[in-house]
Amino acid sequence: MLDAICTLDEVKPVTYTVFKFQKLSDDDIEKYRQSLSCPVCNGKAYFRKASKDGKAACFGSRYHQVDCSEFNPSKAKIREELAVIEVNQLLVDSDALVIDFSKRAGGKRASCSSTDKNIIVGSKGNTGLLRTDPENKLVQDEQSGMSRVSSEGLDKLLHSLLRGSELAESDLWVYTDEKYRWRAKNLFVNFADAEPTDNGAPRMYWGTLSHSDKNMHWLNPADCRDVGIPIEDYQEALCKRFDIQGRRDLEGAGIIIFGKCFFNKEKTRKIIQLWGTDINRMAISKLDD
């Protein structure tokens, strides 16, 4: 995309070329970048600054309409559409879903906590198995009587949500650990709909990122302007896990995070804080992946 519309002033929206937008002051870029949309289909857009290795500044969107002339098929699009098909089929075939927080894109697993190890389903498909016994043998969820239980990692769930899967509206039971389960429609919350819960219970918040602050201590979702995600406490581990070299890698990226939502002291901004300190409970999908 060479152009984007800034709707910060809804009465008088302004169309910027990428060349004009990148020449704005840093303060103006930070002010306008969360109000950008595609000039053809009005899908939420992002701005990425030029990179040190020669990549040009650009506008883009992960919310183009299928028939939008600005929408070019990409590896990300193909991956996300495949995820939609697989997750929607999972909703049909399964009684419940176990989130395997240790599973990374490509089927690899990161190191995981003892809690996570207890809920990993060891074989692909609908095995009807939820956790392991002391001898590491897979056992069934006898208490609920469920016989068709699937397991999936955060990456595929995120990709499916970004492309409009039915997961966020489903009544499917979703296990976040060996004890707690949620209806999917109550668990998966887009950043635009994030609200503090009465009892501080966590949710699975998802959407896309607009940008980070200059020190990369905070992530700012593109889906709304009043939500922030603090990452300073685990910034180094996060950057290593997702190969984040700089702010540009976060611009337009998809993200899902298991965390709690609460107001800041002034009640002017909602904070989404990672549940615990385990970054396995977060996934980031960069545009270039």
Q: Would you mind describing this structure in some detail?
A:
- Helices cover 20% and strands 27% of the residues.
- It has seven helices and 18 strands.
- It folds into three domains: 3-61, no CATH class; 75-186, no CATH class; 188-285, Beta Barrel (OB fold (Dihydrolipoamide Acetyltransferase, E2P)), CATH 2.40.50.
- The chain is an alpha+beta fold and 289 residues long.
- It starts with a strand and ends with a strand.
- Residues 110-129 and 131-142 have low confidence and may be disordered.
Please state the overall shape, judged from the principal axes of the Cα atoms: globular
Order of helices and strands: EEHHEEEHEHEEEHEEHEEEEHEEE
Provide the helix percentage: 10-25%
Structural class, from helix and strand content? Answer: alpha+beta
Mean of pLDDT: 84
- Poorly predicted regions are 110-129, 131-142
Count all strands and give the number. 18
Main sheet summary: 5 strands, mixed, barrel
Distance between the termini: 19 Å
Q: What would you report as the Rg, rounded to the nearest angstrom?
A: 20 Å
Kindly estimate the percentage of residues that lie in beta strands according to DSSP: 25-35%
Task: Please tell me the total number of domains.
Answer: 3
User: What's the tally of helices?
Assistant: 7
- The order of strands across the largest sheet is 13-14-15-17-16
